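To the wet lab folks,

You asked to see what we're planning to order before we commit. Fair enough. Below is the target structure as tokens, and below that is the sequence we designed to fit it. If anything looks off to you, flag it before the synthesis order goes out.
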């Protein structure tokens, strides 16, 4: 029996309900994944008890001799995976991984340039409501209206005009590859440093399936829980000459004690990512994404930029039916057991809480073992739910089929009973 079950049945029930939800639904949120039992186990260790402010060999607390081993393991594995000069594995999240770069490389009021949030960028890349947009003068590049891809001539023009100190690459809803070398050329021309936020496609970079920004960017940040399939957390890599400033920015600049149980889980995930099986997994993510994209287009959906080169795609619902909104479809799909998030499409006329688009990705379903034939089924369920007009009977029928289907792809988890 799990100790929580005995000591706190109310909490245990909610945990089990969430676990059962994950087990019985299809996770198509592009930024989510299912960690391995080893990563899950590492995150649930007594390392959570330990204060370890500082870095290996230079701590502000006694008793850190094994903590040092663990943090060094995580660092060494991350360096080997990405080929970077230096890495800080202490950021608690992707946002803090990015903030560490801001603190290391910028002063308040400096100018930054990143992809617009409405075109696939991220909140922390200069959105006005985020600290990155409040404390810095943020400019944004947008996608080409025809190709819906990044236009390097447009980026160069804006960079020459606004003269940023930092150029941010990477996105949370961009289905195409990034040309980090071309960005580096522009950055060097205008005297900026480049920060590549590879949170979404870090697993693809680690396995050589997406161009790496490491040779071209002063800083590379990532979350560790998306395609990299580690615990919910972040990390920041940099060139050797930024190492000291980066480490001071993370601690004591932004954070206090590191979450050592999560750093252990990162070490476990990075160890898994070094295995040949992880490359096979990432290759399958890409194959699945291609088949899912084709199948969705076959059902009459338009994909932003006409397809995908990575793990995600943005479905523009308007081609299917002009009145369909992302908010409605997200809810209908949820009722059918298919979990997605509404997302603005480039040049969307609807707002972020409504949207004309849905973002979908294949990392989590690929972890569960789904392959190309199953992607076609998933597209069919997506279409039946999205075309249902919210009809409860149609949605329940899909829900029953999805529940039955997921029984063949069980997730390794805690053992829950009585829910
Ligand atoms: N919220 C994440 C995503 O879904 O892409 C990015 O931080």
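Sequence we intend to order:
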């Amino acid at each position: 029996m799990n100790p929580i079950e005995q000591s706190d049945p109310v909490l245990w029930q909610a945990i089990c309900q969430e676990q059962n939800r994950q087990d019985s639904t299809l996770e198509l949120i592009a930024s989510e994944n299912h960690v391995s039992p080893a990563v899950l186990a590492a995150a649930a260790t007594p390392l959570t008890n330990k204060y370890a402010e500082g870095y290996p060999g230079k701590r502000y607390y006694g008793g850190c001799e094994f903590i040092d081993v663990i943090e060094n393991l995580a660092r060494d594995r991350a360096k080997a995976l990405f080929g970077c000069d230096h890495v800080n594995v202490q950021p608690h999240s992707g946002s803090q991984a990015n903030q560490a770069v801001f603190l290391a490389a910028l002063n308040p009021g400096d100018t930054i340039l990143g992809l617009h949030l409405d075109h696939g960028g991220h909140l922390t890349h200069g959105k006005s409501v985020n600290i990155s947009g409040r404390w810095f003068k943020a400019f944004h590049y947008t996608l080409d209206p025809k190709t819906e891809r990044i236009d390097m001539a447009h980026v160069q023009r804006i960079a020459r005009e606004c003269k940023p100190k930092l150029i941010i690459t990477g996105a949370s809803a961009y289905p195409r590859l990034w040309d980090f070398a071309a960005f580096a050329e522009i950055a060097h021309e205008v005297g900026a440093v480049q920060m590549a936020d590879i949170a979404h496609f870090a697993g693809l970079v680690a396995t050589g399936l997406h161009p790496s920004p490491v040779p071209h960017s002063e800083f590379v940040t990532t979350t560790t829980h998306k395609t990299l399939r580690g615990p919910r957390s972040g990390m920041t890599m940099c060139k050797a000459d930024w190492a000291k400033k980066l480490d001071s920015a993370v601690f004591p600049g932004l954070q206090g004690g590191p979450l050592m149980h999560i750093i252990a889980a990162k070490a476990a995930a990075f160890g898994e990512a070094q295995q040949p099986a992880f490359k096979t997994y990432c290759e399958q993510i890409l194959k699945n994404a291609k088949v899912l994209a084709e199948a969705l287009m076959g059902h009459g959906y338009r994909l932003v930029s006409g397809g995908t080169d990575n793990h995600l795609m943005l479905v523009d619902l308007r081609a299917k039916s002009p009145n369909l909104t992302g908010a409605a479809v997200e809810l209908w799909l949820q009722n059918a057991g298919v979990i997605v998030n509404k997302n603005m499409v480039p040049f969307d006329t609807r707002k972020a809480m409504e949207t004309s688009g849905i973002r979908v990705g294949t990392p989590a379903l690929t972890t569960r073992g789904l392959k190309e034939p199953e992607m076609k089924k998933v597209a069919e369920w997506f279409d039946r739910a999205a075309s249902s007009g919210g009809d409860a009977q149609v949605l329940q029928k899909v829900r029953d089929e999805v529940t039955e289907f997921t029984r063949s792809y069980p997730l390794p988890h805690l053992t829950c009973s009585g829910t």
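Structural context that might help your review: The chain has two domains: 40-273, 276-406. The mean pLDDT is 97.

Thanks,
Computational group
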